[in-house]
Design brief:
There is one protein chain. The protein is an alpha/beta fold. It has three domains: 145 residues, Rossmann fold (3-Layer(aba) Sandwich); 74 residues, Elongation Factor Tu (Ef-tu), domain 3 (Beta Barrel), CATH 2.40.30; 217 residues, Rossmann fold (3-Layer(aba) Sandwich). The strands form three sheets. A six-stranded mixed sheet has the order 3-4-2-1-5-6. A hairpin with a 2-residue loop joins strand 8 and strand 9. The N and C termini lie far apart (55 Å). The relative contact order is 0.11. The N terminus is likely disordered.
Length: 467
């Protein structure tokens, strides 16, 4: 059958309010396709615009975008307002607003008083009215998409901010070298030693797939662990890692208990690396290793002046309340993880006796500041060791806000577990930590490790496996 036209008809996307509240720039993310906004979504935007939360800010931003698009359009609103001028030609479709009341068969099945059902009614009407083109509902609400499918209405999640569809593909920062690596890459190899480290310059097919600051390892009679420090075409320079599993190289009394922890301590203790992300299940040692490395570099090496620790107080970015007390005291309930880890770090100083340990505890306390995320805008941290805990609950936009706080001499460490996301509408693929791991990979001053093995206790390990 001959095709009538080589040009495929563009799609019409009907947006749910939560998509706009999640990403205010979504209006410009649909390329050549058209966007339709039911009156119910505009009504919901209006309800959400008050307050200082991230959602309210996004609602106000979307409203400003809509005002720009609609007020500058010369055309009649029923013909759609062009998006190309405002999106610098990234979106070439049109924006349509609902201009007259719509009645639909959906009302016979669903109560029409609910906003979601009104939107579904609009999509069903558009589908009947424009049978020649695809009309698709875009919503981040799973229940809304289930209802749509029950009514045979095409529905999709908003994928534009998803970094990866499958988080198994997320960069782990670590790679096992194949058994024949040296046979294939040793031809013309150079090696030298400097400052107690060995360096190898190897050439071969595998070097193309390596990234700067990626760790490589090989088990066997001569175990090998190294970091990629330079890449040029199919040539890579490898630097052997420092062995933090040995007591002589302990960090604040802590030694690495497995390979990934050793790699993590190598990036945490490297002054040339400004940004570190650590991913891992509960009990893999993310917070403990980070605090140990931070304290060592503050109190012994004097590289940084203090640790600043922040974490999302879920609900994210909400007011932490009119309770009596300072910002620090209000954050205390959220900082149980910090207390637990400090207890472990204090116990490492066995020889000091009770007085010595009490003095150390006071010294540590004076060098760790706990801050709320809410007051991070506009700040600049100089020579600080900034720890962002529970980073999986942040959006990519919040992540940008935090990481751009770093001034000269500051190291930023993001810790997270993408299996424990507490924020609505964030998934493993769109979480802020997934976003930064993907964007920072291969940067010469950034490092990432996915910690694989839990080291809490045999009970915790067994529970994580069977429950």
């Amino acid at each position: 059958m001959a095709r009538k036209s080589s040009k495929k008809p563009t799609k019409l996307f009907v947006l749910d309010t939560n998509v706009m509240l999640h990403d205010p720039t979504c209006l410009y993310r649909f390329q050549e396709h058209d966007i339709y906004l039911p009156m119910a979504t505009l009504e919901e935007l209006d309800h959400n615009k008050k307050g200082m939360t991230e959602v309210a800010r996004n609602a106000r931003q979307v409203t400003r975008f809509l005002d720009e698009i609609v007020s500058s359009s010369e055309m009649h609103i029923q013909d759609g307002a062009p998006l190309s001028e405002h999106s610098h030609k990234a979106a070439t479709g049109r924006l349509f607003l609902q201009t007259h009341p719509i009645t639909s068969d959906v009302t016979s099945i669903l109560p029409f008083s609910k906003v979601d059902n009104q939107i579904l009614g609009v999509v069903a009407f558009l589908k009947q009215q424009q049978p020649e083109r695809q009309v698709i509902l875009v919503s981040k609400d799973i229940n809304m998409r289930i209802k749509a499918r029950a009514l045979e209405i095409p529905a999709e999640d908003y994928f534009n901010d998803k970094v990866l569809e499958d988080t198994d593909l997320l960069y782990s920062g670590v790679m096992e070298l194949p058994a024949d690596f040296w046979d294939k890459h040793a031809k013309g190899m150079e090696s030298w030693q400097r400052d107690g480290r060995s360096y190898y310059r190897v050439t071969g097919p595998l070097c193309d797939s390596l990234l700067v600051n990626q760790f490589v390892w090989q088990e066997g009679p001569n175990p090998f662990q190294a970091k990629v420090i330079e890449l040029a075409g199919n040539t890579a320079t490898l630097e052997t890692v420092k062995d933090y599993s040995h007591q002589k190289n302990n960090v604040w009394g802590i030694t690495a208990r497995n390979r990934e922890q050793n790699f993590a301590l190598n990036v945490l203790m490297d002054p040339e690396i400004d940004f570190v992300s650590l991913l891992g299940q509960a009990g893999t040692g993310k917070t403990l290793l980070t605090l140990a490395a931070g304290l060592t570099q503050i109190l012994e090496a004097k590289t940084y002046s203090e640790i600043i620790m922040t974490r999302v107080t879920v609900p994210v970015g909400e007011d932490i309340g009119f309770l009596p007390g300072t910002e620090e005291e209000k954050m205390t309930p959220w900082m149980g993880a910090l207390e637990d880890n400090l207890d472990v770090l204090n116990k490492t100083d066995e020889d000091a006796g009770e007085w010595g340990r009490a003095a150390t505890q006071d010294l540590i306390r004076s060098r760790i500041k706990v801050k709320s995320l809410n007051f991070m805008r506009g700040r600049t941290f100089i020579n600080k060791f900034l720890i962002i805990d529970e980073a999986q609950n942040l959006t990519s936009k919040q992540m940008k806000t935090l990481i751009t706080r770093a001034g000269p001499g500051t190291k930023v460490v993001c810790l997270g577990n993408i299996a424990q996301i507490d924020t609505p509408y964030l998934t493993e693929g769109s979480s802020g930590i997934t976003y930064v791991v993907d964007r920072f990979k291969g940067w010469e001053h950034g490092g990432h490790i996915t910690l694989a093995r839990g080291e809490r206790s045999r009970l915790a390990d067994y529970a994580a496996g069977i429950l």
